[in-house]
Write a structure and sequence with these properties.
Elements lengths: L7 E3 L9 H22 L4 E9 L4 E8 L3 H8 L6 E7 L4 E8 L2 E12 L6
Antiparallel strand pairs: 1-4, 2-3, 2-6, 4-5, 5-6
């Protein structure tokens, strides 16, 4: 995990008493910021993701996929459940690092390393 503070944070516990419009606004803000980053560093949109400690079995794996915006990038790699995550954006390395937590990995540490497909080393 990077030593500096994350660039983006999605923490579902912060939205427990939030109306749906505010929640939608916050999600749009986060995904728009991620879209801006990925379009700047790799507009082709072909990505490689390596995951470490995935789920309750703490599996490692990878996935190659296409995503031209932040919403699609997150949909491609995060599990389809309520997630809480921190995102680090590294322009120099063209890298997105995500530390994710959910019901099968409640203490964080499910790490995603997303890089342009031709740059597949973490």
């Amino acid at each position: 995990m990077p030593e500096e503070p994350p660039n983006l944070v999605w923490d579902t516990s912060e939205f427990e008493d939030t109306d749906q419009d505010s929640l939608d606004f916050e999600w749009e803000y986060l995904t728009d910021a991620l879209t801006e980053f990925i379009q700047e560093v790799h507009p082709d949109g072909d990505w490689h993701c390596e995951v470490k400690n995935f789920g309750w079995q703490h599996k490692d794996g990878y996935k190659d996929f296409d995503a031209g915006d932040g919403r699609k990038l997150l949909q491609e790699i995060l599990p389809n459940t309520d997630c809480t995550f921190k995102v680090w954006l590294d322009k120099e390395a063209k890298k997105v690092t995500i530390d994710n937590a959910h019901h099968d990995a409640p203490t964080d540490g499910e790490m995603y390393y997303v890089t342009p497909r031709e740059n597949t080393h973490v």
